Amino acid sequence: MTDAVDVRTAVGAVMDPELRRPLSKLDMVREVRVDAGSATVQIALTIVGCPAADRIERDVHAAAAAVAGIHDVTVEVGVMTPAERTALTERLRGGRAQRVMPFGPESLTRVIAVTSGKGGVGKSTVTANLAVALAQRGLAVGLIDADVHGFSIPALLGLIEDDGLPPQPTRIDDLMLPPVGYDVKAISIGMFLPRDAPAGGAVAWRGPMLHRTVNQFLNDVYFGDLDVLLLDMPPGTGDVAISVGQLLPHADVLVVTTPQPAAAEVAVRSGLVARQTGQRVIGVVENMAALTLADGTSLDLFGSGGGAAVAAALSTDDETVPLLGSIPLSPALRSGGDEGRPIVASTPDDPAAVALDAIALRLATTGRSRAGRPLPVSRA
Ligand SMILES: Nc1ncnc2c1ncn2[C@@H]1O[C@H](COP(=O)(O)OP(=O)(O)O)[C@@H](O)[C@H]1O
Ligand SMILES: [Mg+2]
């Protein structure tokens, strides 16, 4: 005789596709009745018109129908009460009833802010690919696009919808669910612009507004338990760098530069400013290094030595800042970015992808998680 407990167990194991937790853990399964092989299952969604509603309903139906002895299933979809929703968001925030920033010094998540002296050096491209490479190696990865003036992370991760815009995160009250691309949970200012904003979303940002936005990304986005949180910083040493320095003084900083000696000086400055706020410069990545051509010659469009020069300039008597790697110029890296297909996933044999993955591995194995253990990296 099939009873309601079996159906409840089966339905409770269905995953909420956005929250990525089983419905039983989210208190979304209400009454379950079984009458002569006929099951009626009541579920409560977080919000009306929840985008994942159809999928959840389908999965619940399938899960109940798969229980032995059930030949007929009715799914009744309801919505949580405000009180239930508050209880849920508090639970998702880890029982932090009051606002405590989840990435503070107590956190087990390693925070890495990726910065550069100037724009166009490939910082966002490098950040997106490092995030995907770390996720491919089994880490739980979040990515905050803090480059409010030139956000590009949604496009780099293929998170662009049919209307050409990034998706809008689902909200459960004041908790936002980050869209996921290549297993990376990503949040970007581009997801919050008015839908009719001009292309590129030209918005005049003031310092306090920037600070509030970064603060909100850190506090009100449901990333869950992350191993690594990457931040794609705006180039230079402006308001966002200062806000991030204040909000995340224990963050590690990765400096991206080109091999061009002229770019080195501004790159060094961005590292020094980060260090002034207490952040640690963990390394330098050189991008757009020499490309080896089919005939074996090499094309060094941007010269050479910039990465090593920046690393040397940022090193002190107490601390050596390493050059973590050099990523060659790569047509595939560029086109993969344009198409929203990160090359570490789509073309892992490309020399730039190999270099990026090696840097990701170095980051994961040389850094320490806040618990003092190396991060749990598995070979993809
Ligand atoms: N190693 C590389 N080889 C070829 N093109 C690259 C490389 N790195 C970045 N690019 C391209 O350079 C441009 C600027 O990169 P982007 O990541 O947007 O820079 P930033 O974030 O520093 O402004 C993009 O078109 C990107 O595809
Ligand atoms: Mg960028």
From TrEMBL:
InterPro entries named in the record: FSCA_dom_sf, MIP18-like, Mrp/NBP35_ATP-bd, NUBPL-like, P-loop_NTPase, YlxH/NBP35
Keywords of this entry: ATP-binding, Hydrolase, Iron, Iron-sulfur, Metal-binding, Nucleotide-binding
GO BP: any one term: iron-sulfur cluster assembly
GO MF: 4 iron, 4 sulfur cluster binding; ATP binding; ATP hydrolysis activity; ATP-dependent FeS chaperone activity; metal ion binding
Name of the protein this chain belongs to: Iron-sulfur cluster carrier protein
Binding site for ATP: 117-124
Organism: Microbacterium invictum
High-level lineage: Bacteria, Bacillati, Actinomycetota, Actinomycetes, Micrococcales
General function of this protein: Binds and transfers iron-sulfur (Fe-S) clusters to target apoproteins. Can hydrolyze ATP.
